[in-house]
Amino acid sequence: MTAALRLAEALMACRSVTPADGGCQALLAQGLAAAGFVCEPLDAGPPEARVSNLWAWHRGGRPGPTLVLAGHTDVVPTGPLDRWTSDPFVPTYRDGRLFGRGAADMKAAVACMAVAAQEFVASHPGHAGTVALLFTSDEEGPSLHGTKHVMGVLDQRGERLDACIVGEPTSVQQLGDMVKNGRRGTLSGQLVVKGIQGHIAYPQLARNPTHALAPALAELVTTRWDEGNEWFAPTGWQVSNIHAGTGATNVIPGELVLDFNFRYGTESTPESLKARLHEVMHRHGVPCELTWTQAGDPFLTPPGSLSDALVAAIAAECGLTPELSTSGGTSDGRFIARLCPQVMEFGVVNDSIHKIDEWVEVAAIEPLKNVYRRTIENFLR
Up-side HSE of residue 299: CA atoms within 13 Å toward CB? Predict the structure, then answer.
């Protein structure tokens, strides 16, 4: 069994449902410290939901850039245990796959990053620049006290980060076919439409907020917010929840609550999207209150030194030229990009993430570790 696979097994056996770390980072720090890395815990958050963060680094003997490998040790809840074929926290092999919660998202990648960094330092003790690792237990949760917190600490210290690879599961059909070189921003809102509750047989004595919203909602659904660009698809607007009424069939509701989300690229801004939505509400005379939550800005890493290093490593190890994409959801890359000019994401096939019987191909683990190691070598020459 390889070192990366052995470490992946050990991490998967840790019950680290967000925000718990379950001992993962202690295992990682043990191996990294033995390899000469300085390991610094940067835990944060309230005592009842403490978030574990590990910042580790190794400076070589020559000047050069700082390359960070980043990931998360927390996992989403298992879901119904009786639907799992095997215990989600007992790593289990079947048909060439390793099953368990966090197998793909993203304990296999975390293990591969740690081992790749250790191998690189062992082979190149006097390397240029700095190789660093950042692990958090708050990626699957609110993301308030994890990577976001660490970036704040590093910013206050004046730390310079030049490039970062996040180990998100980006591959689609096989390891190496897709890399994320950016992500869309996410802007959520809650719309509360005020009405007057009443008997459904006497609508003249009430005001139905659903009816008041309907024309504006129809317009929002068909609005073209922007045209996108070379890297980002057009901005999308989606309703996630809508609720009105008491549950009775003969009562006009007095209030409607609608939750929605924008996923947007660099052609729009939060300010422009907010202004356009407010204008639609005003024009249709919808009596409402709006509250907004912005969870992340879009970020983009155009082709450059990091993409050259990563794409070359994938080609050498996997025999593929990956597609560069900004599709999918958000990641902690949105926090890292505020401090780091080049952020890309690469990891295993994402078919089983967050599902019952989550898995990773055993045959992909060693190549993934090698891609990370080759990328470090290419970037810190």
Answer: 24
**DSSP assignment, residue 83?**
G
Residue 168, burial from CB neighbour count under 10 angstroms (0-12, 13-18, 19+): buried
Written as one letter, the residue type at 326 is T
pLDDT tens for residues 273-310? 999 999 999 999 999 999 999 988 999 999 999 999 99
Q: Is the pTM of this model over 0.85?
A: yes
Per-residue pLDDT tens for 326-370? Answer: 998 889 999 999 999 999 999 999 999 999 999 999 999 999 999
Distance CA 313, CA 44 (A): 35
Q: How big is the chain by its Cα radius of gyration, in Å? A: 24
β-bridge partners, 182: 300
Neighbour count for residue 376 (Cβ, 10 Å): 25
Tokens representing 146 are 């994890």
Phi-psi region of 253 (alpha: psi -120 to 50; beta: other; left: phi over 0): beta
Catalytic residues: 74, 139
